[in-house]
Amino acid sequence: MADIPATPPPGVAPATDTGSPAPAVDPRSLHRFADFYPFYLSEHSDSRCRRLHFLGSSLGLLCLAAALWWRQPWFVLLGLVLGYACAWIGHFGFEHNRPASFKRPLYSFLGDWRMYADMWRGKVPF
């Protein structure tokens, strides 16, 4: 599938030749999630990065289910480690940017689940 078209939110520079947006906006300046989410998507323009996010989120959900099923809370920690490892490999290996979670952890966490749902619904391409 084609990558997400470069439609950055106001104040975000267009994508660079690597496919990642130029760091023209500080995500901390985006105070509403509705403003942050387009920025979040612009930080995930490489389909390999999005796929790794999807894999990490899926593994996180499986680990959460395992924690509940076997009543072993360490599965939750494993899910977080696997989820973030997949995401960071996508950012550092393919997207060549720093995850927004370093500056906006809550919005980034919410953005990941929104993108995950949007990928299931076909609104964001794999």
Please characterize this protein's 3D structure.
- The protein has helices spanning 33-42, 47-70, 74-95, 105-121.
- The chain has four helices and no strands.
- It has one domain.
- The chain has 126 residues and is mainly α.
- Helix content is 58%, strand content 0%.
- The chain is globular.
- Helix 2 crosses helix 4 (105-121).
Summed up:
With 126 residues, the protein is mainly alpha-helical. Helix content is 58%, strand content 0%.
Keyword list:
126 residues; mainly alpha; membrane; DUF962 domain-containing protein; transmembrane; transmembrane helix; Mpo1-like
Structural class: mainly alpha
User: Helix count, per DSSP?
Assistant: 4
> Residue share in helices?
55-70%
Q: What is the averaged pLDDT score?
A: 87
Order of helices and strands: HHHH
Number of DSSP-assigned strands: 0
Strand content: under 5%
Q: Can you tell me the residue ranges where pLDDT is under 50 for at least 5 consecutive residues?
A: 14-18
What is the element layout, followed by pairings?
Elements lengths: L32 H10 L4 H24 L3 H22 L9 H17 L5
Helix pairs in contact: 1-4, 2-3, 2-4
